[in-house]
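Sorry to interrupt, but I need a hand with the structure work. Leave the record below and I will have a look:
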Amino acid sequence: MHTTKQLGFTLVEVLVSIFVLALGVIGVAGMQVMAMRNSQTSNYQTIAVQLATELADNMRSNAAAMNQDDSSNPFIFDYNAATDSAPTAPAKKCYTTTDCSASELAEFDIYLWKLRLTGQIKDAGGKVVGATGLPGGRVKVCRDKKPYASGSLTWDCTAPLTGGVNSPMVIKVGWQGRGTNPDGSANTDGSYPPSVAITVESYVNPTQ
């Protein structure tokens, strides 16, 4: 009597093949998600640098406001879009009037800058245009002799023992990101560190 061998795949082999294929698909999907996340983080990093640079230029071009006492300097501020109210327009819109003081011009520049930070730039009809803001964006401008702590940026501002006016003026920008530190991601307590720090100037205020 002759026996014939069955050719083809058994059910176990088919299941194993499906399992291996599924692992491959999951791996590829994970890589794509990671690539998209890295691309988004890189995009936010670029936006943060642009925003910080723009604010620094506004500060440097308004010497009268910058030369005020630090307690009166409007450019020294802390704004968190995640917890603070939406930016409010100042009384004077300095692109339509020429009689703005240095402080009024600074306040107007800061207002427009906050709109960019939060992606709320509007056209002539009042419609929001663009989406160049940072999610949960935060900015802090202060004198800080040591922006980094343990190799990472912090929101704390450390003045030297001889007086805060001897510290450089620093702009710190961050956002609510994902993943791990230091790129705008969450700390263990759920807070978000700065991702960008730009030194505006390292001068000692001559009025103090």
In short: Residues 111 and 152 are 29 Å apart (CA to CA).
